[in-house]
Design goal:
two-stranded antiparallel ribbon; 19 helices; globular; MINY3/4
Amino acid sequence: MSELNKEVLDLVWGRPTSGGVSASIFRRWTQGFVFSENEHTALEQFEGGPCAVIAPVQAFFLKNVLFNRESPNWRQMTEEEQKIELCSTLSEILESACASLTTGFCLVTWAKGRSPHTQSQTQDMPAPESSQPSEEQSTALTAEDLDFERFHSVLHKRTVMSASDLKEEVLSLYHAWRGCCGVLLFLYSVILTKGIENIRNEIQDTMEPLIDPVHGHGSQSLVNLLVTGHAVSNVWDGDRECSGMKLHGIHKQASVGFLTLMESLRYCKVGSFLKSPKFPIWILGSETHLSVFFTKDMSLVGPESPSEQARRVFQSFDPEDNGFIPESLLEDVMKALDLVSEPEYVNLVKSKLDPESLGIILLGPFLLEFFPDQDSGIPDSLPVYHYNGLKQSNHNERVEYVEGTALVLGFEDPMVRTDDTPVKRCLQTKWPYIELLWTTDRSPSLN
């Protein structure tokens, strides 16, 4: 892999001004995909940083476990089932990232005989459960001796040309994904499968690395690459023009979604392709971390109701998210929604929705005028779950799902108002009047 080292390193880690990537940042990224001892379908994150890879993998893993696997208890898994489902998930993400089948899929692993794993880990047979703690401990100790330069000197890449061969190869490399540096091996595999030049063409600022060399956090481009197969830097729908520059966004509905606390702080606006995914699983972003919110109830991602469509279309004419549009745009909104848009009727609506002639049309009155009493099709309440891979962010430092009940209302009801928490504020960017009741004493943490 030596001929690609420089390009890959520049793309992922940037070009540090002095001394290369810090040892502490690199160490945080040297973990593998490890399942929680307390939650068989939850991946554990040891330190801050690799959530940019682990959370998307967790989201796709849950999608496959909840909706593709026939099992009465989705939270119980044998180690063999974990192996099959994890490798299937990694293959799916690699397939999504593949720019062209003619170039095939690239898998990055250890050069022969250079793996830091213990002998028992490199065998194809899963290790007995009783030996797992000592294996993981020995791997962690080995990882401490594996610095940035040495790691990149002992890598090897292999190419497979078909999806079926990819699945077989990924499965055969299970212990590499699970062991020391498994997260980085997978990340590099995705990058080389996608193609460095393809990623550079999609990233808005090619000088911004996929991993922040100062804080160790993954960029939005990295998250988008894993979630959608495209390393675009933005979360809105489609492309936008800004001062003659084309800014790339998301171009089709994602399988799993993304919501961010940054939207509640008005730093960005997530588009419907990420807000309304195919499956009811959302990666939640805080200022520094990624977690996952999910449910088994498909009604949460059902087809848009007319009022939901109207809200989305109205807001597309309100890019600043002010909650209103200039009255001059009312006709365009009505046309976009296939409402009667004859000038005389539009003027009549203007006078009704803007009786004080302020020159603006508010979202609320507009929806009430054309879509009163619309039912979203979402049940009054439904069970939901939250995942946070960091031990220290979980109760008793045990990585487990936090269970709760969500009330998705179509309007604000002060009688059922619950606590104002970061998780709730994040979810309110999609469901403005959602209320959450958790089974634990404290709300789950976004950080």
